[in-house]
Design brief:
With 146 residues, the chain is mostly helical. Helices cover 73% and strands 0% of the residues. The chain has one domain (15-145). It is rod-shaped and about 95 Å long.
Length: 146
């Protein structure tokens, strides 16, 4: 009987880290959105100074409104994608921390950190596994000396 592959159960594994990252991305995007709308406004004012007093006034205002609405939809999409993709770092960090705490609590240095195949930080997990193996060897040497 074959084992089922590990499936992601939740996106937010380290809420503080992931929300902080997501809010930084969203804030940067909002600043760019506001700057773009302001730049578009001043560009139109410079090229067509009488546009707001002409018959096109309502059309120009609706274009600005659509720019803002589409920008906000884009910000929402980026927030969702940021949360989703931040899991690729927060998930392995959570797993590494959990496994190290388990090794410390049980003093079982035969355990290793195992990450999913596509997870980021697999090289860090490998380095920590090498460290755990070295600790295991030293632990055994100290046990033999006693």
């Amino acid at each position: 009987m074959s084992e089922k592959p590990f499936k992601r159960k939740k996106i937010l594994v380290n809420k503080e880290l992931q929300w902080k990252y997501t809010m930084m991305v969203a804030a940067a995007l909002l600043v760019m959105l506001v700057m773009s709308v302001i730049a578009a406004f001043f560009m139109v004012q410079t090229i067509l100074p009488d546009i707001f007093s002409s018959a096109y006034k309502d059309t120009v205002k609706s274009i600005y409104l659509w720019l803002v609405v589409i920008g906000l939809i884009f910000v929402g999409l980026v927030i969702w994608l940021s949360l989703y993709f931040s899991h690729r770092i927060a998930g392995p960090l959570y797993r590494i921390e959990k496994d190290i705490n388990d090794i410390i609590e049980t003093s079982d240095f035969s355990k290793r950190i195992v990450l999913r195949q596509k997870d980021e930080l697999s090289s860090l997990a490998g380095t920590i596994n090498t460290l755990i193996a070295a600790i295991q060897i030293n632990y055994r040497k100290n046990e033999v000396k006693k």
